[in-house]
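hey so i finaly got around to running the thing on NAD(P)H-dependent oxidoreductase from Maribacter algicola. pasting the sequence first so u can double check i didnt mess up the copy paste, my clipboard has been acting weird all day
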Amino acid sequence: MKDIIHDLNWRYATKKFDTTKKVNSEDLETLLEATRLSASSYGLQPYHIFVIENKELREKLKPVTWNQSQITDASHVIVFANKNSFGEDLVDDYLDNVVQTRGITHEAVKGYSDFMKSKLMGLPNEHKNSWTARQVYLALGNLMTVAASMKIDTCPIEGFENEKYNEILGLKESNLNASVVLAIGYRASSDETQHLSKVRYPKERLFTHL
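ok and heres what it spat out for the 3d tokens, dont ask me to read them lol
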């Protein structure tokens, strides 16, 4: 337990990445597998994740990310894209996977299917978009925590032009929306931010025990 608290204190939103250091393929796969295993409501995972290493593509994304250097200097850029809207196929696809993975029948999950559809299908499209976007942040937080445990630096980025990302990455055609970006890699020794004390509210202010 002490190790993970130490790792979370070590983590910070890295402002300058060392351009000479890359996250190796094995470590990247660990991060992606941890992201795949993240929790989501009903287990539906209503999003898609783009792992971007291509330099030319990142140069296109940088101007629409407020020219933040992390986009081009980090080892990889990860774009979390939530589904704009969805129909019953979201539930059906998931339950097909459940049936195949667990070796059970569709009849065994019909009640769960009906329950999920009764809760989700009637939502207005803007609520569906908001709900799927929230699921993204569960995966984001999990990835960042695992990265910290591996001493891989991260910087979550919300400062970007959402519509431009959608255009550059061709997301609209896939009913997807770029909701948050994560740069991963290794901090540069010149990044002074790493030496600053972490600022968080004390637990007495943040938590209420009832």
